[in-house]
Amino acid sequence: MSSLPVLPLFLLLLALHAPRAQGRPLTTCRELLSEIENILKKPPVPSEEPLSLNEQFILKNNSFLKINLDTFLNATNNFTDGDKIRTNLEVFKTVLPTSTSKENLFSIKNWGDFRTKLREYLGTLKKWVCNKSLLFR
């Protein structure tokens, strides 16, 4: 009989059979958002209009996290670096609660508008998801 305790041996066997991350290494919530922010900072930087009070409310409200995410995911199809942004944003679909609303609460006119609104939304994700979620730690 081996002198090795059973629990460490069991944990080792369990670790060997654990599913591995597929496609991309495990990253934190903040790392995902930082990658998106770096894409948004790439030149050329278009002129940006300030957000209306209504848009600020919608983008900062944690009740609209999921429906806003869907709006941004759909908008990524229209932009050059959209695939990279979409890949990072899709990770959040699994941790956000389902929205009661099915309609888009705001529209995205162009790249500058997308950047402004997405940056505001990323701040909300940091506050409500990254700071509170155990799934990304």
From TrEMBL:
Molecular function, one GO term: interleukin-3 receptor binding
Keywords, ordered alphabetically: Cytokine, Growth factor, Secreted, Signal
A single GO cellular-component term on record: extracellular space
A GO biological-process term: immune response
Subcellular localization, as worded in the UniProt entry: Secreted
Secretion signal span: 1-23
InterPro entries according to UniProt: 4_helix_cytokine-like_core (IPR009079), IL-3 (IPR002183)
Any single Pfam family the record assigns to this protein: IL3
Primary location group: secreted
Family: Belongs to the IL-3 family.
Name listed for the protein in its UniProt record: Interleukin-3
